[in-house]
Amino acid sequence: MRKKLLTSLLLLLAVSLCQQGTANAAAAAVVVTDTGITSWMLTSTALVLLMVPGLAMFYGGLVRTKNVIGTMMHSFASMVIIGVLWPLIGYSLSFGPGILGGFIGWDSKYFMLQGIDDAIMSTHIPEYVFAMFQGKFAIITPALIAGAFAERVNFKGFAVFIALWSIFVYSPICHWVWASDGFLFNLGAAGAIDFAGGTVVHISSGITALVAALYLGKRRGYPNNVMQPNNLVMTLIGAGLLWVGWFGFNAGSAIASNLATARALTVTQVAAAAGAFTWMVIEIIQHGKATSLGVASGILAGLVAITPAAGVVQPSGAFALGALAAIFCYTAILIKNKLGYDDSLDAFGVHGVGGIVGALALVFFIRPAWMAEAAVKVGGSWTVWQQLGVQATAVGVTIVYAAFMSFILLFLVEKTIGLRISENDEMSGLDHSMHGEHGYGLINLN
Predict the structure, then answer these.
(1) Could you give all domains of the chain from N- to C-terminal order, each with its CATH number?
(2) Residue 71 CB partners (closer than 8 Å, separation 6+)
(3) Cβ atoms 439, 65 nearer than 8 A
(4) What is the pLDDT of residues 348-357, one digit of tens each?
(5) Are strands 104-105 and 98-99 parallel, antiparallel or unpaired?
(6) What are phi and psi of 105, to 5 degrees?
(7) Which of 237, 301, 389, 392 has its Cβ near the most Cβ atoms within 10 Å?
């Protein structure tokens, strides 16, 4: 009797332990929020948004007095318009499951973010945080384009254009490169390398900027009339804000708070400094003096080039990319002046060219460990030249698609709402003609 009772107790204990183990396993399977990572991602999200008013100041200081408000409004309009579109449909189009053969994403649960109210991602952050972080990238990208046609566009036409561009250009490219089922994400051994937006943000906006500048034509009087920046102090402050915000842009793209984050932050700092330093040296050699605009341009060139590479290169590679970007971007601006097209604030010369340099040249500075991991994934060898082919494919696809779709959208908006303002409006300036205001309480009709 005692043996039976003892046996029964042992069986009950065993069953209890098994149930407890199952419960513990189930609990372990539940993804919980990591407050440290979440805090960093919230900070990164705010830093990326800070870049938009930074860009507004950078661009606003470069135009003439009569256009400062009109130019800054382009960046703020992007915050407002894309800020509405992103939670409505943009996040779903970019990061939803692929439809139409993987051309775009979509899932109705992402409409107005209604299906992620309780979602915690495998990276241990609420999906709301990831959605908002990515939303800031979607905001700043069309704002960059405005630098190519500053001082000559209808505000209503610009607003409609960036809304359509975000849906039909940004979202598909974003899905191809960053969504887990995107074809560029899965190309080759480890996909196209674009850590924080070399193709998605800078090449797409830079190529669109070039197409827009060519399509809309030159500003009245360009290049014969001198069109001096109205406030280089504001431009320098804007460049500084962009530099600070870029730490969230790049280091935040690790979606972590660990060694990868530290690496991305470090190479961002090094590339920005190297770009500015190289630009200063070039100007001193060429003209005998360094300019504030050159320093600001070099900072941006370095930051743009390191953006796709921040997760795969070491500081030495970051220095090289920053220096290369400064050389190529400086040359691109010289070529622009020779050819005479009016990319007003060098959106293509810095963002387009810098993005292409970073996306392609990064392969020559990749950590050996990254290449070894890529080789394991394909069960053999994986060379720098093979990865260069993948990068070139991503760059080429982005250039062709962005150029083609942007031309169509520019044509449609110009023929319906209108994009290029009248000669009288251009003479009076965007501040007065588009907004009925004056940035400094002054009128300058030069």
Answers:
(1) 33-435 (1.10.3430.10)
(2) 56, 59, 60, 62, 63, 146, 150, 151, 430
(3) yes
(4) 999 999 999 9
(5) antiparallel
(6) -100, 160
(7) 301
